[in-house]
Specification:
This is DYH5 protein. This protein is mainly α and about 170 residues long. The protein has one domain. The protein is about 85% helix and about 0% strand. The protein is built from six helices and no strands. α1 packs parallel to α4. The radius of gyration is 22 Å and the shape is elongated. The N and C termini lie far apart (about 75 Å). The model has no long low-confidence stretch (mean pLDDT about 90).
Amino acid sequence: TQVTEKLEEAVMIWIKQIKQVLVESEQMRREADDIGPSAELEHWKSRMSSFNSLLDEIKSSRVKKIISILQAVRSKTLKQWKELDGNITIAANEAKDNVRYLYTLDKFFGPFAKASPVTMMEQVPSLMNTVRMIYCTSPYYNTSECMTSLLLKITNQMINTCKTYLCEG
């Protein structure tokens, strides 16, 4: 029972740490007012990396051994553990999926930043079709919050490109 108590303590510490990661990932992001759409992709890449590292740790043999011992003794901490394991998996899948969809926009971001207003406007219909495709097909990114954030960043990039063009001309 002493070993079981120590293992349960360790799992409770992990549960607390995982809850903290999940809470932090759900908090509002503070971003500069003029940030471009590349930052959206970078955010989701960073989030994907964090959650994948966490999943790798959860799936490690050390953690699996501890969980299987606690399963054998029917520990009550496992209910919380399984719920958090599922939440981490969902968050990791969301980040991976969002990165995959946002990469389809990446081809626009570089040229968009260096374009003249005229060439930028030529790319807008294709860009908007890609945004529409993301909205229609992504299981996670098709919320009004995500779309508003993305369109705001695209607009910021367009404004910055026009400012640069005006200052150079």
